[in-house]
TrEMBL record:
Belongs to the WD repeat SEC13 family. WD repeats lie at residues 16-48, 296-330. The keyword RNA-binding does not apply. GO terms for cellular component: lysosome; nuclear pore outer ring; Seh1-associated complex. PROSITE patterns: WD_REPEATS_2, WD_REPEATS_REGION. This is Nucleoporin SEH1. Keywords: Cell cycle, Cell division, Lysosome, Mitosis, Nucleus, Protein transport, Repeat, Transport, WD repeat. Its main location: other. GO terms for molecular function: structural molecule activity.
């Protein structure tokens, strides 16, 4: 697996995940003490921290009939609940049952039960995310058919029942999305959506804002209005014109603006600053001022995943160069690479070659509990 040279702020370890195909996603729970992985082998695995820096497998099951693209945890207030999405055109909700402090089988694996199967999509479901806790138990999915679907569990004690609350057509293939985790009551619920639509004339022509102004960007911002009870596209980021593989809002701890990480052919950090209402008095419909704060090409290849730490000051990215890179905000909002984790077994492969079937994970943690999941 190779040895790594790291700073004293970071450590790394290799976990033999025993997935039989490419691992697509890794997700930590709210406390960073549990971890879920999903793969093209159609399996989901759950890992628990042993309290000594190691991880042990506590759950493994076949979740779908196709590649499992994403896995995500619900807030622990709603129990031990996972959601997954797949190439088989479905999203699923899973709940751990039984005593979580006891082993449930001969192999010491606990039991996860499928509580619901969401079958509204006619194409591959490419991403799934639980909403911020203060909005209740919400789940958003997106799919290659260009539709965002937002579901709600009206009774959090009955995870078998989910109501389709909103269906938002985007008109282009959607690859990823992210809730804005801001807890501010001033800001309405917000979603960032990324498209992997190729740059063709037809695709560009079809991507329009609600004000019918054409935009050839690949990232869209949607906000929910309590007055109209609907989601509306409020911005299109023209600074991102390449297909988007992943997208993530940073946790907002008192900032007056939002930070959005975008994984395309490189890594970008975009500042999204709400404009005061007075600025719209001249007839402009703009809701935000956007600025690319940083763009990193050090992966020299396609970037697949981006993930923030709990304070929104450290970003992890992974790419086809078989490296995980950590970016930290410095003085005056300058960003700098502070660590690189390489897999020596794969680092010699050409970035132009297809990604190998990865059946192990390279994990990194800070010296504090701000865990970082990555591809």
């Amino acid at each position: 697996m190779g040895e790594l040279t790291v700073t004293n702020l970071f450590e790394s370890q290799t976990i033999v995940a025993d997935h039989k195909d490419l691992i697509h996603d890794v997700a930590y729970d709210f406390y960073g003490e549990r971890m879920a992985t999903c793969s093209s082998d159609q399996y989901v695995k759950v890992w628990d921290s042993d309290g000594k820096g190691g991880w042990r497998l506590t759950g493994s099951w076949k979740a779908h009939h196709g590649s499992v693209w994403k896995v995500t945890w619900a807030h622990p207030e709603f129990g031990q609940v996972l959601a997954t999405c797949s190439f088989d055109r479905t999203a699923a909700i899973w709940e751990e049952v039984g005593d979580t402090n006891a082993t449930g089988s001969e192999k010491g694996l606990r039991t996860w039960v499928k509580r619901s199967n969401l079958v509204d999509s006619r194409t591959s479901v490419t991403d799934v995310k639980f909403g911020p806790k203060h909005l209740g138990l919400l789940l958003v999915t997106c799919s290659a058919d260009g539709i965002i679907r937002i579901y709600e569990a009206p009774d959090v004690m009955n995870l078998a029942q989910w109501t389709l609350q909103h269906e938002i057509p985007i008109k282009v293939s959607i690859s990823c999305l992210s809730w804005n985790p801001s807890l501010s009551k001033v800001n309405p619920p917000m979603l960032a959506v990324g498209s992997d639509e190729p740059n063709t004339t037809n695709a560009v022509a079809s991507v329009q804002t609600d004000k019918t102004t054409s935009c050839n960007g690949k990232v869209f911002i949607y906000e929910y209005s309590d007055a109209s009870r609907r989601w509306t596209r409020t911005d299109c980021l023209s600074s991102v014109q390449e297909p988007v593989n992943d997208i993530a809002f940073a946790p907002n701890l008192g900032r007056s603006f939002h930070l959005l990480a975008v994984a395309t052919k490189d890594v970008r950090i975009i500042k999204i600053e709400p404009l005061p209402e007075s600025s719209n008095s001249n007839g402009s419909s703009a809701r935000f001022k956007t600025e690319v704060m940083a763009a990193f090409e050090e992966h020299y290849s396609c970037v697949w995943r981006v993930s923030w730490n709990v304070t929104g000051s450290l970003l992890a990215s992974s790419g086809d160069d078989c490296c995980v890179r950590l970016w930290k905000m410095q003085y005056l909002n300058q960003w700098k690479c502070v660590a690189v984790f390489k897999n020596e077994t794969l680092a010699g492969d050409s970035p132009a070659q297809p990604r190998p079937h990865t059946t192990y994970m390279r994990m990194a943690t800070m010296a504090n509990p701000s865990h970082m999941p990555f591809h």
